Amino acid sequence: MMKRVMLGAALGASVLFGIAQAKAEEAAICYNCPPQWADWGSQLKAIQQTLHITVPPDNKNSGQAIAALIAEKANPVADVTYLGGIAADPAKDAGVLMPYKPKNWDKIPADLKDPNGYWFTIHSGTLGLFVNKAALGKRPVPKSWADLLKPEYKGMVGYLDPTSAAVGQLGVMAVNLALGGTYDNLDPAIKFFKELAKNDPIVPKQTSYARVISGEIPILFDYDFNAYRGQYVDKAPVEFVIPKEGSLTFPYVMGLVNKAPHEANGKKVLDFVLSDQSQAMWGNAYLRPVFADKLSAEAKSKFLPDSEYARAKAVDLKKLAASQKAIVERYGAEVH
């Protein structure tokens, strides 16, 4: 009897172990896939429904994702990561990514992917001002970077921390180039942010979509896709502004983590984000999919006119990445 009990227990444990192992094999870990950002919530659901792979949401930003990947280099936890384009080459250079060319790789423009497959663009957004008009009260909607320095917007302007968030670093460069700086000369941006510091800005480290929708942050340096989502999906009193001095359009990329614990599932996820289904979903979430033909006419009709977007230039990823250290150091030393 005791032997039968022990055998039954052993078999039961074996079955439970097998189930747990199977569940583990049906998972993929993505760093920096926040459900409230860029409609990742819908993408994670679609991955589950289409691939039967569970990808838990993750609220890291690009800098935090790379820091975690480096810290875990000897024993990786993540399988794939999503990063602002400025972080693509630094992640590759840190040895935390490995090459993988997913399905539809050949269709990606050459300047939007690493030639050896370490990273590739899935979509892009244009940086501007995400404004909650109701939270402004009787103040006018700002139309320029310069407007944000006015005393009437004191305590109302937010931007993500440039010492770690890719969108924060892009904000520094967007302002810098718009005000006459270059990728090598950050003086205009540093001067601007020092002036803005006198206006009590709000500087979160994480995605702050909900804080704009609620009116807690009336004006946020953010992407068009978040503003359009607020306007058309959440029906909030918000609008998107491309500052009159100009701005930048920025790609977001993904890559396979070096020595990924669920490598096969990670590859399936990367194949999926370039599939027709996923690319159309990004477009319907008001991002510009890397395959432009997947942006439907209906979705594009919700964007500002092309004449407004003419003020937003494509960022030079190589030059921006080369400026990243200086952005972080100078902002930290002179503004923070």
Keywords:
336 residues; alpha/beta; D-Maltodextrin-Binding Protein, domain 2; ten-stranded mixed beta sheet; 13 helices; 10 strands; 41% helix; disordered N terminus
Please describe the topology of this protein.
Elements: H1 2-25, E1 30-31, H2 40-51, H3 62-71, E2 80-84, H4 88-93, E3 97-98, E4 120-132, E5 157-158, H5 166-178, H6 187-197, H7 209-213, E6 219-223, H8 224-233, E7 238-241, E8 247-257, H9 263-273, H10 276-284, E9 288-289, H11 297-300, H12 306-309, E10 312-314, H13 317-334
Parallel strand pairs: 1-2, 5-6, 8-10
Antiparallel strand pairs: 2-8, 3-8, 4-6, 4-7, 4-8, 4-9
Helix pairs in contact: 5-6, 5-13
Describe this structure in words.
- By secondary structure, the protein is an alpha/beta fold.
- It folds into 2 domains: 30-124 and 250-300, Periplasmic binding protein-like II (D-Maltodextrin-Binding Protein, domain 2, 3-Layer(aba) Sandwich); 126-248 and 311-334, D-Maltodextrin-Binding Protein, domain 2 (3-Layer(aba) Sandwich).
- 41% of the residues lie in helices and 15% in strands.
- Helix 5 packs across helix 13.
- The protein is globular and about 55 Å long.
- The termini are far apart.
- This is Extracellular solute-binding protein.
- It comes from Ferrovibrio xuzhouensis.
- Pfam families: SBP_bac_6.
CATH topology of the largest domain: D-Maltodextrin-Binding Protein, domain 2
Helix-and-strand structural type = alpha/beta
- Please tally the helical runs, counting DSSP H or I stretches of 4 or more residues: 13
Kindly provide the name of the CATH class of the largest domain: Alpha Beta
- Give the N-to-C terminal Cα separation: 71 Å
Question: Quick check: average pLDDT?
Answer: 92
Outline: globular
CATH architecture type of the largest domain? 3-Layer(aba) Sandwich
Tell me the strand percentage band.
Answer: 5-15%
The number of domains is 2
